[in-house]
Amino acid sequence: MFSLLQPSYWLTIQPPEIGGWLGTVVFGAFLGCLVLGIVGRIVVDRRGDDRYKKDVGGRISSLLVTMGILGVILFFFSFEGIQLFGARFWYPVWGIGLLVWIGFIVRYVRHDVPAKREREQRLREQGKYLPRQHRH
Description:
Blueprint: H1 7-10, H2 20-46, H3 51-80, H4 90-127
């Protein structure tokens, strides 16, 4: 446990041993991300009544599919013992990338979506007073 907290454990190009129960759990987590992303994309495409909910669902699905694919590839390199591409330091890099991407999605949901909704409402209110084209 204490070796996980030391930089020398993470900053090596030697791939980790990923056999056994822990390897199965890690592979299952990466595969679960991939499957949830694919299922999420299908659900969002079929049930998208609100444009912004559909956009946020698409962003989350893209996150899950991309990180799932990258995780499975990383797991494969570690499983095969490829020194540089299967190194331990890629796992924290993967986790940091995941957290940064989640941060961008949260920022989009909290700041951009309400601003877009308010702008859309304002344009709808202005549109009531503008003349429309008559079709003949």
